[in-house]
Amino acid sequence: MRKVNCNGSPYEIGLQHGQAVKAEISRSLIFYKDLFQETARLSWPEVCQLAARFEPILQRDWIDYYTEIQGISTGAGHPFLSILALNVRTEIAYGMFTDGCTALSWKKSSSSFLAQNWDWQQEQQENLILLRIRQSKKPAIEMVTEAGIIGKIGLNSSGVGVCLNAIRARGVDFDRLPCHLALRACLDSWSKDKAMVALRKAGVASACHILVADLNGATGMECSHIDTIELPMSDRGIITHTNHFTRNHAGVEDKMALPDSPVRHERIDELVETIEEDSPGFENIGILLNDERDFPTSICRQQTDTSTVATLFSIVMDLGGKSAWVKIGRPISTKEILELVPGLLLPNGRE
């Protein structure tokens, strides 16, 4: 996996990002051009027209993100609206994409873990990058993302981590924050509570579940384009989620794109019960993400002749230790293992 180190102003961060992974961004644009045409019957000019509808809110309320995307555009040599389209890909397709994922958080008295398998089209594996960002007056960030996208799954130097479950449900609000930029807003926050304040104020533009956590615990934010329902931790300090709504969102229809989502949700709930209450950690949480019951549409997912979706990476974050381990590919047969320690990006390795 390509490792991209960025620092400076938002524009400089974007410029470095774009220059470092030009090839990956170009391939990602080709991938999404084809996917938008196939799934939503949208030509690329139509995609860019829809992306442009987010410009007013980004220019008004999220100018740093707008400027960072401008930097990527310059660095990669692609039009601004094409890069913006990558960052709002979920909203443009009106919920037609479903990244199949299984996520969980677990808070104990002196520890807090956050974990996820991210499942998506196998073709995008080569376009994933490890993005490291050092920025002024904000935490340092390490995340695994698709090249050209400024917000995804990872953690920051303040011990805030975030995961994403896509949900297929029609509807988009162009006056709310697109879900991938909502992930970045979490990673730009000094605490889980401050991340939640930011998302409550902004709203999220389309259906998804955002699981945000720090050492003090986690909250699931199950979003549609019209509402957000907050999911609390269980009595054991656990939240689990997959790719369907677990609460009623009035006026919003869950298309249940992945029929295996409820099965995976039930399975991850079963598995956490097998871990002793005081012993969640990198190793045993990682074992949960290796699970292949109901293969190939299991928690550890495999591409088949009828589905090109597979687990592309697995991540377990220790938010107290402000570190994470990432397994590239299916965790049961990983291609590469990465350690994330965003605090090491800071001067003297500290806040």
Overall description:
The protein is α+β, with helices and mostly antiparallel strands. 32% of the residues lie in helices and 26% in strands. The protein contains eleven helices and 14 strands.
Describe the secondary-structure layout.
Blueprint: E1 2-8, H1 10-20, H2 22-40, H3 44-52, H4 55-61, H5 63-76, H6 80-87, H7 89-92, E2 101-108, E3 111-121, E4 128-135, E5 141-146, E6 153-156, E7 161-166, H8 179-187, H9 192-202, E8 208-214, E9 217-223, E10 228-231, E11 238-241, H10 261-272, H11 282-289, E12 309-318, E13 323-328, E14 336-340
Parallel strand pairs: 1-4
Antiparallel strand pairs: 2-3, 2-11, 3-12, 4-5, 5-6, 6-7, 7-8, 8-9, 9-10, 12-13, 13-14
Summarize the structure.
This protein has helices at 10-20, 22-40, 44-52, 55-61, 63-76, 80-87, 89-92, 179-187, 192-202, 261-272, 282-289, and strands spanning 2-8, 101-108, 111-121, 128-135, 141-146, 153-156, 161-166, 208-214, 217-223, 228-231, 238-241, 309-318, 323-328, 336-340.
**Unreliable stretches, pLDDT < 50, 5 or more residues?**
none
Overall geometry: globular
Overall pLDDT level? 94
Distance between the termini: 27 Å
Strand content: 25-35%
Q: N-to-C SSE series?
A: EHHHHHHHEEEEEEHHEEEEHHEEE
Content-based structural category: alpha+beta
Biggest β-sheet strands, sense, barrel: 8 strands, mixed
Radius of gyration: 18 Å
Spatial order of the strands in the main sheet? Answer: 1-4-5-6-7-8-9-10
User: How many β-strand stretches?
Assistant: 14
What portion of residues is helical?
25-40%
DSSP helix count?
Answer: 11
